[in-house]
Specification:
20% helix, alpha+beta, Jelly Rolls, three-stranded antiparallel beta sheet, seven-stranded antiparallel beta sheet
Length: 241
Amino acid sequence: MTLTAVPAGLIADVRANGFAVWPTFVGPDRCVELAELAAELSAGPYGLRFPKSTRVWDLYRHGAMFVELLADTRLVAAVTELLGKHYLLSDFSLNSVLPGLPVDAWHLDYPFNEMPGTLSGSILGLQCVLALDPFTLTNGATELIAGTHDRPRTPIAAEIGERFTFVAEPGTLLVMAAATWHRSGLNASTAPRTAILLSFVERWVRPMCDPPEPGPWSHTEELRILLGMSRPPETINGVPI
């Protein structure tokens, strides 16, 4: 696969360090449109209030811009390279971290956070964080520990070493292996910090979300496979059944 549209070194960085930063994944004008729609959704009936954040689930239901994100050929190329063909959407949500709340605990993401015994040797899942607001030291930008994805295990406080902080402008995409230790910092600002979360898993891992009914989000076979609505052909020794 030719990855000419994917930043040089991004795939290698995710494999080696557990994460990589994709600057200007979304341009300024489109980012403003997404941020305005996100604010509207968060304030409306779809915004679910939790102790530390406001969430909106299944963003593909809320407009063509969100479906276009899922189908972005650059994102598809990168995720396919990391997770293999016919990967699945596990979560597609809006996360608005509220100000003044305690720092998040260090953790792993799905599927590793639900395994009774963690597996190694494959990435299995990715968490992509698209910043809609500036991510700064003041508003609790995501913190990560490089290399922790290599031997997936529950974070241990005594082993927390040098951390990378995802300080970024709106439109920047963080691509992170699900087993990488990470957390949200303290949002010491007076405003929420909002991002779009896109989580993907290898084709054999059960996603966190169930397949939806047919709708505007399922107008291509690629999207139907991504959403778990249809399966690609099974093969025997590489030959389709």
